[in-house]
Amino acid sequence: MNKIDEEYKKLVIDIIENGSDKIDRTNTGTRSVFSREIRHNMKSGFPLLTTKKMYWKGIVTELLWFLRGDTNIKWLVDNNCNIWNGDAYKRFLNNPSYGYSNPKDLEKTINNQLNECPTIDDFIYKIKTNEKFCKRWGELGPIYGKQWRQWSTIGKGQLMNGLYTNEENLKMNSIDQIKNIINTLRTNPDDRRMIVNAWHVSDLDEMVLPPCHLLFQFWTRELTLDERKNLCDINLETECKNDAEIETYLTLKGIPKRGISLKFNMRSTDVGLGLGFNLASYGLLLLMISKEVNMLPDELIFSGGDVHLYSNHLEPIKEQLKRDPFNLPNVFLKDVNINDISDYNIDDIVLKNYTSHPSIKLPLSN
Question: Would you give per-residue pLDDT tens digits along the chain (366 residues)?
Fold first, then answer.
């Protein structure tokens, strides 16, 4: 059964009926509740909302971008994913000295660039075609990808004093949290510290936007023999004499021994535009990690702090509440040889049997 759409609609109704009206950084206004949770069993299907059409390619592209450790929008726009363009352009307009190292004619240079990019389309064209411009203005600061794959252990004071200035030293003094998680899942799957953290306090003021989904955690359990048997597509009783032989047979066939769950925590959740995207993104991450460590995807859990609807989303989203959900789709990862989880291509991730209602246009608040 598709419970994820129903849980989503319940949350929307909860916010409308019980929320408090609040002001926010965009001056749009929100209706907000505090501390809510949604749980989804991955056996029920992939958690992609069906009560409105979701931007699947954007979900996949952004997650792969995070896993690459990338923080520049160039790879996104080259793959026709434009969800971070507005943030980059806003930084360009609001902080025109960002990235400069005391050029001789700073004011003239900045004014020329602003004149060349009066619209976001002009800005993105220069990102695509001008390498120097892209390196400076396509950069979003040390956001998710940087924190997931290269969490810096170097203090700002050391950087300001000229220490660790080359790329090799920066890498040597950083932590690849994704790699560490995969290694721990393989070697100590009952560990209680399998956490990836994007909330690097000393980096927050350098980010174009502080992390909304700021932390996620894995938890695993041993599967029962019956659960493992259900994953096998043959009649085991004809192949084996007893449970011990069945266990051995399943292990030789590579049938997972453990189930893996993922809980992601959001300090701020835009329910209208963001939550459906986040549920699918972390659902996909759970599938990718589970394949990497040969475990069965178990439960996906969303935990939100400030959970809100923007005031200009309240009326449009009521249309979604009237819609009956369809069956959930499935997602498959192609069997490809990879050295790192970031090596997947967009086409290696296949969405099947997705039926949805039409998309709902909701304005983006910046």
Answer: 799 999 999 999 999 999 999 998 888 999 999 999 999 999 999 999 999 999 999 999 999 999 999 999 999 999 999 999 999 999 888 876 555 555 555 555 666 677 778 899 999 999 999 999 999 899 999 999 999 999 998 765 444 444 445 565 666 689 999 999 999 999 999 999 999 999 999 999 999 999 999 999 999 999 999 999 889 877 777 777 788 888 988 998 899 999 999 999 999 999 999 999 999 999 999 999 999 999 999 999 999 999 999 999 999 999 999 999 999 999 999 999 999 999 999 999 999 999 999 999 998 877
Task: Give this prediction's pTM.
Answer: 0.91
Question: Domain of 345?
Answer: 4-71+176-352
CATH number at residue 341: 3.30.572.10
| 169 located within any domain | no
* Single-letter code of the amino acid located at 133: F
For the chain, how big is the Rg over CA atoms in Å?
A: 23
If you search the block for the tokens 């001056």, which residue do you land on?
27
Q: Which of 254, 167, 181, 179 is nearest to 218 (CA)?
A: 181
- What's the domain count of the chain? 1
Assigned domain for 319 exists: yes
The active-site residue, picked from 117, 212, 232, 240, is: 212
- Is 184 a member of any domain? yes
Q: Look at residue 158 and tell me if it is in a domain.
A: no
Q: Where are the beta strands (DSSP E) in 224-295?
A: 258-270
**DSSP string spanning 103-137?**
-TTHHHHHHHHHHH-SSHHHHHHHHHH-HHHHHHH
56 φ, ψ to 5°? -60, -50
Secondary structure of residue 357 in the 3-state scheme: coil
Contact 321, 328 (CB under 8 A): no
Please report, for residues 71, 99, 249, the alpha-carbon distance to residue 206 in angstroms, rounded to integers and kept in the order given: 12, 11, 53
Told to judge if 240 belongs to the known catalytic residues of this protein, a careful annotator would answer: no
